[in-house]
Specification:
Arc Repressor Mutant, subunit A, 4-stranded antiparallel β-sheet, single chain, alpha/beta, Rossmann fold, 5-stranded parallel β-sheet
């Protein structure tokens, strides 16, 4: 079945351009011209990904992100911003956007970003037998990562992670015990230049700690190495 992409933008020329190029790449496309319709269509259409403009009538992109996450609609979001828009990318990513692009953009690059995001969130829905479940998984204390199924468990409970949170936790897990700088994490998880804005890493580390640490002030798993970065390690006593 073709993946479905919801495009939310109030510029008809951009909607038409994106719809054409995404359909040429094999995606089914639904569109909305304002934030309210975007939220409604996200609930009704259950898209696999949303391309969301920052500046929209009725509700802007940040508010749309916020409301979707409050409603537990975890559709991956690619945010579009104009170069002169006042946009705090950390705030956007913190509220639930998975990636962002600046206008003007190449349609080919948008399609490439869409493919990359969908690859990251691809999950396998077939039943998992015990043999499959054991292959490739990583166990660290009460944390269990299952990369093949894009799932993470803590104390037996499935964690609700955004795609970037999962990628970051997986990279830390694969490098257990190693000190990783913020720049290393930016390069490995975000795959492209964020102009050295390492706050993005700190925000995501904070979110992960809220989900796997009993005391976020004295973390047992994700340790801050002052002046260097972070490392994930076995909690003491494990």
């Amino acid at each position: 079945m073709n993946k479905k992409v919801l495009v939310v933008d109030d510029e008809q020329s951009i909607v038409t351009l994106l719809q054409y190029n995404l359909e040429q790449a094999g995606y089914k496309v639904v569109t909305a011209m304002d934030g309210e319709d975007g939220i409604n269509l996200a609930a009704e259409e259950n898209p696999d990904l949303m391309i969301l403009d920052l500046m929209l009538p009725k509700l802007d992109g940040i508010e749309v992100c916020k409301q979707l996450r409050q409603q537990k609609i975890n559709v991956p979001i690619l945010m579009l911003t104009a170069k002169d828009d006042e946009f705090d990318k950390v705030l956007g990513l913190e509220l639930g956007a998975d990636d962002y692009m600046t206008k003007p953009f190449s349609p080919r690059e948008v399609v490439a970003r869409v493919k990359a995001i969908l690859r990251r969130v691809q999950t396998q829905t077939d039943p998992i037998d015990e043999k499959q479940e054991d292959e490739g998984q990583i166990k660290i204390g009460d944390l269990k990562m299952m990369p093949d199924f894009y799932e993470a468990y803590f104390m037996g409970e499935l964690l609700e992670l955004t795609p970037k949170e999962f990628e970051l936790l997986l990279y830390l897990s694969k490098n257990k015990g190693r000190v990783l700088t913020r720049d290393q994490l930016l390069s490995a998880v975000w795959n492209y230049d964020f102009a050295g804005d390492t706050r993005i890493v700190d925000v995501h580390i904070s979110h992960l700690r809220e989900k796997i640490e009993s005391n976020t002030k004295k973390p047992s798993y994700i340790k801050t190495i002052r002046g260097l970065g972070y490392k994930l390690e076995e909690p003491k006593g494990e």
